[in-house]
Amino acid sequence: xxxxxxxxxxxxxxxxxxxxxxxxxxxxxxxxxxxxxxxxxxxxxxxxxxxxxxxxxxxxxxxxxxxxxxxxxxxxxxxxxxxxxxxxxxxxxxxxxxxxxxxxxxxxxxxxxxxxxxxxxxxxxxxxxxxxxxxxxxxxxxxxxxxxxxxxxxxxxxxxxxxxxxxxxxxxxxxxxxxxxxxxxxxxxxxxxxxxxxxxxxxxxxxxxxxxxxxxxxxxxxxxxxxxxxxxxxxxxxxxxxxxxxxxxxxxxxxxxxxxxxxxxxxxxxxxxxxxxxxxxxxxxxxxxxxxxxxxxxxxxxxxxxxxxxxxxxxxxxxxxxxxxxxxxxxxxxxxxxxxxxxxxxxxxxxxxxxxxxxxxxxxxxxxxxxxxxxxxxxxxxxxxxxxxxxxxxxxxxxx
Length: 400
Known about the structure:
By secondary structure, the chain is of the alpha+beta class. It is 56% helix and 8% strand.
C-alpha cells in the first residue's frame, strides 16, 4: 500500500542516512608504569576506635522549637531589663498633669480622631487635655490615649461608665493611669500590663471587651504555660519510648544473632559428626547400589526379551484382527449391495402402484364431474331430456 502514497508522505517513511564511521579514539595519557596498590599501608592513619566520640543525640522538633523560643525569650528578657532600668515614668516629659485625674483608654480604632474621642468622653466631666500616643517613626496612632479631667470625680465617672464604650465600631477599655500611681508597675512593652489578648493560643487569649481581672489574666497565663510544658513532656516521653524501643530492638537483634551463631556452631559440629558416620554409610550404600544396579540390569534384559516376545505376539494379533476386519467389511458391502437391489425393486413397484392409484382417482373424478353436469342439465330442462329419452314402439329408448 505504501507505493500508492504521494511523494510527500513517502518521504516520511524513508530511512535516515547511515551514521558515518569514525575510528575509535586513542587514549590520551597511558601510564604504563602505574601500579595499583591496596590501602593496607595506610591503616595506621585510621582513627582509633577508642578515640571515637560518643554519638550526639539529635533533639526532636518540639525540643528545637522550645530551645529556639527559650533563646528568643532570654534575648527579649535581657533587652527588656535593660530598657526597664532606664524607664522612669515620673520624669517622662510626655506624662504631664495630675496622674490621679487621668484615665488610660486603649483599643481605640486607628481612624478615630482626637476630637471624636473628646466628644465621647466629655459626658463624664470637663476634659483638660487628651494625649493620643503615636508612632515615633511613622506618626500613626498606636491605638491608645491618656485623658486628663479637670476633677477627680470626672476621672472616676469615666473609669466606671466609660469602660466598653463603642467608638467607631470598636469597644474601648478604660483604666486608671498605673505608670505613676502603682508602685513597681511595668507597661506592656516591658512584659507587664493587664491585657490578655496576646497570651498565646486562641483558647487562652481573652477576646471579650473591657478591663481584665489580674487574677483571671494570671490563671490564663499559668494554663498556657502548663499546656506548653505538657506538650514538651509528651514529646520527651515519645522520644524516650522510641529510644527504649530502639535499644530493645538492638538487644533482641544481638540475642538473636548470638542464638543463630550458637545454632550454626552446633549444626557444624553435628555435620562433622554426621559426616564421618555418613562416610561409612556411603560406602555401604555404594556397594548396595552396585548390587542393585546389577540386579536391575539383569531384570531389564529379561524384561526386554519378554517385551520383544509380547511385541511379536501383538503384531500377529493385529495382523489377524486386520484380516478379520477386512473380511467383515467385504461381507457387509455385499449384503448392502443385495439389500440395495431389493429396496430399489420395492421402490419401483411402490411408485408404479402409486401412479395407478392416481390414474384411477383421476378417472373417477372425471366421471363424477360428468354426472354432476348431466344432473344439472336435467334439472334445468326436464322436458327436452324426457323427449330425447322417450321409448319407441319396440320398447327401446331413443336418444338424440
